[in-house]
Design a protein that fits this description.
eight-stranded mixed β-sheet, disordered N terminus, 10 strands, two-stranded antiparallel ribbon, alpha/beta, 28% strand, 199 residues
């Protein structure tokens, strides 16, 4: 018994790969026109998102999502300097970023590197050596990670709106089972669902 406990204590922690998405009630992260302004979080939801992001050590992005997020490197992007916005910018800047792109030649943010192609073995190595969790952003990259069996948990923030079509938050052609770990309702009607991937 003693040797089993010692063995478990010596086993290094492995970072979890987490997929987080703000979606419509019918499961889209953007509508058919590519708009997602309806998903803008209010102060309560934004502060909650900050707490979800605070422990993250590495962000995994595709090119489009990286270009959307890279503005957080600049003070101009923060706008009116609201505390929750400034907090998110500081959290984002403190994390490492890996951008998977064949077309991107340079990056505009610190702590950022480019990988030419999505490589499941590389992601697994990042998870195995991570001292904190990783997150994958963007539906297409997340779908590849789901297919490779790399995603451990999901945070979905469902907005009380149906947009009727667009880019789906979750892959449509794969069977994935989830275990509900937690849920929370917000004053603006948003519902947070925290799942563990079980297959």
């Amino acid at each position: 018994m003693k040797s089993t406990i010692q063995s478990e204590e010596l086993t290094p922690a492995v970072g979890k790969l987490i997929y987080s998405a703000i979606t419509s009630l019918d499961g889209y992260i953007e509508d058919e026109e590519g708009n997602f302004d309806w998903a803008a979080p209010d102060e309560e939801v934004f502060a909650f998102v900050n707490e979800l992001e605070r422990p993250i050590g590495t962000y995994l992005y595709g090119r489009r999502m990286y270009e959307t997020m890279a503005g957080w490197e600049t003070d101009e992007f923060i706008g009116d300097g609201h505390p929750v916005t400034v907090d998110f910018a500081e959290i984002w800047r403190a994390a490492d970023k890996v951008v998977f792109s064949r077309s991107l030649e340079s990056v505009s943010s610190a702590r950022t590197r480019i990988e030419v192609a999505f490589d499941p073995d590389l992601i697994q190595k990042l998870k195995s050596s991570a001292k904190s969790d990783l997150t994958v952003a963007g539906a297409e990259l997340a779908a590849a990670a789901f297919r490779a069996g790399l995603i451990d948990e999901c945070h979905l923030l469902l907005n009380p709106i149906a947009v009727g079509g667009g880019k789906q938050a979750l892959p449509s052609k794969d069977h994935t089972r989830f275990e509900l770990l937690d849920e929370r309702r917000f004053g603006n009607g948003v519902v947070h669902l925290h799942y563990r991937v079980t297959n």
